[in-house]
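[Automated response] Your request has been received and processed.

Submitted sequence:
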Amino acid sequence: INVVVQVATKCVENLSVASLVELLEKYKSYDGLFYFLGAIIEFSEDKEVHFKYIEAATFFGKISEVERMTRESDFYEGERVKKFLMDSKIQNMIPIINVCDK
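Generated structure:
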């Protein structure tokens, strides 16, 4: 998966984030999605990219990263993220609290 993430990160300008996300989701590669989006998240203000990163981190079990993103990012739709987190029934409620505090 490391090679796939490296290639995706280098080709993102030519292929678009959306197409790479779609490809990784098609194969249910949430770890690949997490690492790929993690490599570009700091440079993106796209709400969909931030949501997909939060979603991938949740599926991949990286709740501390979900907590960080919900606390630090200003580039996600609060209501959508809150609904996703509540539907995913995560044990740690801090990400939901972070979203509600914004």
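Summary generated for your ticket: The longest helix spans residues 2-15. The chain has seven helices and no strands.
If you did not submit this request, please reply to this message.
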